[in-house]
Design a protein that fits this description.
heterodimer, A: mainly alpha, MetI-like fold, two-stranded antiparallel ribbon, 2 strands, B: mainly alpha, about 70% helix
Chain lengths: ~290, ~300
Amino acid sequence: MIALVATSTIASILLIFLFVIKEALPILTSAKVQQEASLVRFFNTTIWQPVSEWPRYGFAPLILGTFKVTLVALLFAIPVGVGAALFTSEFAPRRTKEFLKPIVEILAGIPSVVLGFFALIVLASFLQNTLGYDSRLNAFTAGIALSFAVIPTIFSISEDALTAVPKSLREASLALGADRWQTAWRVTLPAAQAGILASILLGLGRAIGETMIVLMASGNASLVTASLFDSTRSLSATIAAELGEVVFGDPHYNTLFFIGTLLFTMTFLVNLGANLMVDRLKRKLAGKL
Amino acid sequence: MGMKPRLSSLLPIGITGLMTAIIVLVVVIILSNIFWFGHSHLSWEFLSTAPREGMTAGGIFPAIFGTVALVLLMTVAVVPIGVVTAIYLSEYARETSPLTRAVRMAVSNLAGVPSIVFGLFGLGFFIQFLGTGIDRAFRFEMTFGQPCLLWAAMTLAVLNMPVVIVSTEEALKQVPEDYRHASLALGASKWQTIWRVILPQALPGILTGAILAISRGAGEVAPIMFTGAAYYLPYLPKALSDQFMELGYHVYVMATQSPDVEATQPILYGTVFVLLAVTFLLNLSAIALRSVLRRRFAGT
């Protein structure tokens, strides 16, 4: 009975996969839907224009948008998150450490709609005034705001991994005459490599799937340009922006579920990789200590 | 603590310190900005009345009411399932069995599913499949086959399962083995031991999980956008099949679709302040409860 309830988690994952795919399936099976939206049509145009007389469902701008926003977020979140984790675990006095961890927990606890609101009202104007680009809402603004949601993930898991490195390694390094930075950089960090990589993967998963921040701060224009300072539209934001106005069973509806399937699959694979790494690391440490 | 850093090492250490300072700065700026512009708009009238004049005036009572109803329903659904799963993982499961590993993998992967995908799932499974099924079976007119409070709460419950499971399991693991041995030695059955000895001891940890789930549930918008939250409603939800207003969604709507941004801004800040205050108070009480649990077993 108890084991049966426990399997509800497995059932949930399966049901999510099943029911999101179910609504996306007509893209592959229904000839009528395929006249508007099919795998070929997703990629033979670079225009995303689902609401028009001749709807076009080109995925290119959306995939590019998700890529841009995620890139900015990770370029900012990885150095900040890992750097702060290294500082917290290796150099910070205990008092500082006890103050830093709750600060990061607070950041993690801020709802993403609040981060999106902050990006839209405050951060966007600040960044535009500082850097002087044209479009107030763009991939860069959304990426920076998104990094605020990703940093806690990278920080906490990296910090855990660094703290889990056995003391004896550090002591051996110090005894050989290395100073604390050399020890942290050349011994502790490499020893925690797998955990840090896992934290970055989990951060990546979060960044790809995060919706509200990107929806509110990216400007949502489906453009295909190289600039990070152009308005952009991500996969996740597209679902959120369009699902409300769509007709059930319409090709547009199926396409949005197809995007959902894509997001689910991508984040699933990324998270699976990260979790397997954490799992292996745990067993390795347990065997070693 | 080893050798003093060499001069050449001070710069890189300083850089890691700077990264840490950036995080602190971001948190301080966000919180003070929202506090500064938000607190002045708080009043009893703001908390107790409905929006007026196209949301450019009035309060946020329906959104507060909807949020409370939503998270209560969600909690009722998620806590029993989450706690029983945690009991299984902590007390019954053998770590090496395939089922245990599958459950663990499911929990951590469930935690990584994007929130908007939960929204799609809620729409496809709860509303289109279950809801429409119920309506057909009982010959209701369009009652459960549409976005409503019940399905939004169920969607959030699925989303929050990992939160409850992880924190309950942690709490159960903290109860010392001696307690289990002592209880079993006195002739109690396994279930009696869990029910009468372990669960009461782990109660603060279980509450922590529930509170964290509520706090997360109160802030999530993407999963409820299409499963029950409404843009604006002139009345409060009376039944499980009614739509509702919600704080986070209200923030989104006012921030992005307001016809008069200037007039909405103070109300918007006030709403964000309330949402943030609610999530923080919940998180703080979760942290406090967790430390109660740690202290309880600190000596053992």
